[in-house]
Specification:
The complex is a heterodimer of chains A (113) and B (115). Chain A is mainly beta. Chain A has no helices and twelve strands. Chain A is 0% helix and 50% strand. In chain A, strand 5 and strand 6 form a beta hairpin. The chains are: A mainly beta (113), B mainly beta (115). At the A-B interface, strand 5, strand 6 and strand 10 of A face strand 5 and strand 10 of B.
Chain lengths: 113, 115
């Protein structure tokens, strides 16, 4: 079945550091890939998405590229801020698997000043 | 645009009691989802509705969980009787349609503690 594996946290970075959160997936078809973010005390929000191979999703300085050859969708940001502290979830939706969403376990990021 | 609304935000019950959660999706969204998020894990889909019909309930523990979406708008999720392992955050999400590329919009969740 489909699944998502993301790097375990927690991750602690200093402000302005470079961020990478790894995400790899297993899917039977050609899934759409998503990054969701959950800020403290809030619900999940879509951060970015990519719907086909080589697409790059971007939002708020975050980027992720859909790499079919490595089945990856790593999240990156060049310079993190304290306000980026949150839990980040990688997810996929696969048309060939009933469009069900599969989420990774989440990676907690803390950015310190 | 109003987001997905859920209530209550918090609930504490004893095992074997029953509990119900309510969700009001974004206006016009045909698809509604209920997820269970256990601490330290990603959300797990429990049930998906398309309008007022069930699309997927394969991971819903049907001996104790039930959900309905009358009139294709609001939805309720019920647990009866609750077990200790049901302690989790229950998330409701909605999307315009059920297509794989559709963005899901999440509510704030209901945090359930079963004692």
């Amino acid at each position: 079945g489909d699944s998502v594996t993301q790097m375990e946290g927690p991750v602690t970075l200093s402000e302005e550091a470079f961020l990478t959160i790894n995400c790899t997936y297993t899917a039977t078809g050609y899934p759409s890939l998503f990054w969701y973010v959950q800020y403290p005390g809030e619900g999940l929000q879509l951060l970015l998405k990519a719907t086909k191979a080589d697409d790059k999703g971007s939002n708020k300085g975050f980027e992720a590229t859909y790499r079919k050859e490595t089945t990856s969708f790593h999240l990156e940001k060049g310079s993190v801020q304290v306000s980026d502290s949150a839990v980040y979830f990688c997810a996929l939706s696969d048309l060939t698997d009933g469009n069900q969403f599969y989420f990774g376990t989440g990676t907690s990021l803390t950015v310190i000043p | 645009e109003a987001g997905v609304a859920q209530s209550p935000r918090y609930k504490i019950i004893e095992k074997r009691q029953s509990v119900a959660f309510w969700c009001n999706p974004i206006s016009g969204h045909a698809t509604l989802y209920w997820y269970q998020q256990i601490l330290g894990q990603g959300p797990k889909l429990l049930i998906q509705f398309q309008n007022n019909g069930v699309v997927d309930d394969s991971q819903l523990p049907k001996d104790r969980f039930s959900a309905e979406r009358l009139k294709g708008v609001d939805s309720t999720l019920k647990i009866q009787p609750a077990k200790l392992e049901d302690s989790a955050v229950y998330l409701c999400a909605s999307s315009l349609d059920a297509g794989g590329q559709e963005t899901q919009y999440f509510g704030p969740g209901t945090r359930l503690l079963v004692l």
